[in-house]
Amino acid sequence: MGLGRLPWAVSSRAGPAAPLPGCLVSRPSAAMLLPFKHVLGAAGTFLWRRLSWAARSELRARVPTRGRGERNRGLEDFSARLAAGPTLQHFLRNASPPQETRPQLAEEPEEPEPYLTSGILEETRWKVYLETYGCQMNVNDTEIAWAILQKSGYLRTHQLEEADVILLVTCSVREKAEQAIWNRLRHLTALKSKRLRSQAPLRIGILGCMAERLREEILHKEKLVDIVAGPDAYRDLPRLLAVAETGQQAANVLLSLDETYADVLPVQTSPDATSAFVSIMRGCDNLCSYCIVPFTRGRERSRPMASILQEVKVLSDQGVKEVTLLGQNVNSFRDTSEVQFRSAAAPGLSRGFSTIYKAKEGGLRFAHLLDQASRVDPEMRIRFTSPHPKDFPDEVLQLIQERHNICKQLHLPAQSGSSRVLEAMRRGYTREAYLELIQHVRDSIPGVSLSSDFIAGFCGETEDDHRQTVSLLRQVRYNVGFLFAYSMRQKTRAYHRLQDDVPAEVKHRRLEELISVFREEATRANGAMVGSSQLVLVEGPSKRSAAELCGRNDGNIRVVFPDTEMEDGTGSGAVVRAQPGDYVLVKVTSASSQTLRGVLLRRTTLRESAAHR
């Protein structure tokens, strides 16, 4: 639950993507599969069913006009190409699980199979519309799913009306998030029923956490969707969609002990974006009593470090200026792919913290990854989220303080200010241990910006527990906060062992009080920056005014400033205007709980700015 939640849906923005050369499209032409259907019987019938509705209709209209001799010649020609094609062993070999020895993000295009001509590969390419809900992990999942579909010959559209396939990447952390998906599904099924008969049927799919948690209800009770794919089943999307073409529902929600998509290079949702997310691990082993993540995303497993660094390098080459390393418990990263590091000792926990599992020995740890990632491009900012407070060894804090391109910003999810509630949540620390860590972080990284998560109205929370959370907010004075009312989730320990006994109206009141106190204290914390110069990565025009630009400072706080000419401090001495991807110095003139405002001073670089601190 540590990841910051995005309260909006991120719909597809990228235009149609060009097909990768040599990719095997799973929908050969109807004319080619007709003899296949007759020759191979049941197997041919299965491939026949994988044709699009339009292609089958077209073939049925054309076949009677062909003469027997022409059909026989076509059959002989097809049989010859089929004989030169791959054997059953070829398909079985390709269907075996990929071996993650030395992951490769960029593959050489393969030659199409002999019986698939170029015309077949270009036929019936469906358009996919992707819509994302929830946290940054879901944004990254969307990019992974699209990379897989693109390689299978699909096109992408940002127009809902153009789509042949609509896929929703879903969140299951809170009931409100799920309800938004149910409402959206009912709207989409209404759209599906209005589909013209001359068009292929519209296919709707649910991906991600909600797919895993509510498969039965989605498929059988509501019958609103055609495919369901859990977070570890995105590689199976082309097959699931092929099954859906036959008119059947298809699902794969199996959780994996080793799937990290290490060999899949995500396709960025916004190709011109200045920042990107890089997933370094999946799943979580903490099993906090309120959290559904271990049950929807499975056990913790980390990507090989080599594949992560390669992806960061690719993003740097594309001009991305900021990378956020993602994971449910990002700072417990442990790469065991390198044999020589498998006997390494486990790092110690933060003082006063504990876990429900034994220390995991061996592997390259987060400090090493952070060190190597920051060396890829000195002009690229590195962030990470979401960490657990227990996993902050001194080497990580020291590295953040020393490296000019690792942001001086930490997300330290507290969840509650009451030690009694923290114990019920199985967080593994007390209020006192948490505050000791906060002080140690501030001593180690002067000027660090802090953010946190809080839950209002957890099981058994009293008014005194609530007041302790209010006092923690005042004492720490966070710059950024994510605050929510408790929503009980099935499968969690709280669901089985605790009572959701705080009335909804009390949860709402307490949440409003927490939000009010957070804003008050964040305004004070951000107000301390008035008069200072902040290094800002320009993202683009402000949403409220075309005459203003916006970006984020090192502490991940939004900064808005006029779009005016300024001095180019990178060496040319010219007068320039800021562009997305530029680093600029902004003098802060005012502050609120969420935004800083200021005036442009000059364009700069990360290294030049660090040298003048």
TrEMBL record:
InterPro entries documented for this protein: Elp3/MiaA/NifB-like_rSAM, Methylthiotransferase, Methylthiotransferase_CS, Methylthiotransferase_N, Methylthiotransferase_N_sf, MiaB_methiolase, rSAM, rSAM_horseshoe
Transmembrane residue ranges: none
Disordered: region residues: 91-114
Reaction equations catalysed: N(6)-dimethylallyladenosine(37) in tRNA + (sulfur carrier)-SH + AH2 + 2 S-adenosyl-L-methionine = 2-methylsulfanyl-N(6)-dimethylallyladenosine(37) in tRNA + (sulfur carrier)-H + 5'-deoxyadenosine + L-methionine + A + S-adenosyl-L-homocysteine + 2 H(+)
Assigned EC number: 2.8.4.3
Broad enzyme group: transferase
Residues annotated as domain Radical SAM core: 270-524
Listed cofactors: [4Fe-4S] cluster
An example Gene Ontology molecular-function term: metal ion binding
Annotated MTTase N-terminal domain residues: 126-246
GO CC, alphabetical: cytosol; mitochondrion
Domain TRAM positions: 527-602
PROSITE patterns: MTTASE_N, MTTASE_RADICAL, RADICAL_SAM, TRAM
Keyword rRNA processing attached: no
GO biological process: regulation of protein metabolic process
Keywords: 4Fe-4S, Iron, Iron-sulfur, Metal-binding, S-adenosyl-L-methionine
Protein name in the entry: Mitochondrial tRNA methylthiotransferase CDK5RAP1
Organism: Platysternon megacephalum
